[in-house]
Amino acid sequence: MFHSLRALSLACALGLLPLAASAQAATVAFGGLKQDTTLPVEIASDQLTVNQADGRAIFTGNVLAAQGDMRLSAAVVEVEYSADGKGIARLHASGGVTLASLSEAAEAQDAVYTIASGVVVMTGDVLLTQGASAISGQKLVVDLTTGTGTMEGRVQTVFVPAAKPGTKP
Asked: What is the tally of helices (H) and strands (E) in the chain?
């Protein structure tokens, strides 16, 4: 699936698909990435290293973090615990990061999820798909509590219109 996303992005970059818009920033509705940020965060990985001195844990190898219907996968996820040590303050994911809900998916090189604010910042060759539509840029900021976000950095998008009644898709 993600290889086809990269192919779609490459096709956009090469001008093989018509672009509906090309700009420096675009605001996008993320209904599928709206999330209850008070839900627990579950993390699974191949390895875990904990440093009690600085309040960090590093998960490596096939990392999957889940919160409700939202999934974040990456090669490495560093967890920064809150000052009181009773919760997670921030997740920093790197290496093939994918953030997905039931209806949308975004991939990037890096992502930082600040739990208290519900904000995810994805950077480096970001590609977001919503159904058959796609948008790419260099930085995506998503507010999971409101389901809104902004894509920045040479934004390119492909919108696929709905099929007209009586036509084949």
From this structure: 1, 10
Full-model pTM: 0.74
Residues 87-118 pLDDT 10s: 888 999 999 999 988 888 999 999 999 988 88
Contact present, 84 and 66 (Cβ < 8 Å): no
Question: Is 21:157 a contact under the CB 8 Å cutoff?
Answer: yes
Asked if 149 and 30 count as a contact pair (C-beta separation under 8 A), the reply is yes
CA nearest 155: which of 32, 31, 29, 20? 20
Find all residues with CB under 8 Å of 65, minimum gap 6, and list them.
41, 42, 43, 71, 72, 73, 77, 91, 93
Query: Over the stretch 20-77, which tens digit does the pLDDT of each residue have?
Result: 333 445 555 655 556 676 788 899 999 999 988 887 899 999 999 888 888 999 999 9
CATH architecture for residues 2-158: Sandwich (2.60)
Residues 6 or more apart in contact with residue 133 via CB below 8 angstroms: 157, 158, 159, 160
Q: Where are the domains of the chain?
A: 2-158
What letter represents residue 118's amino acid?
A: G
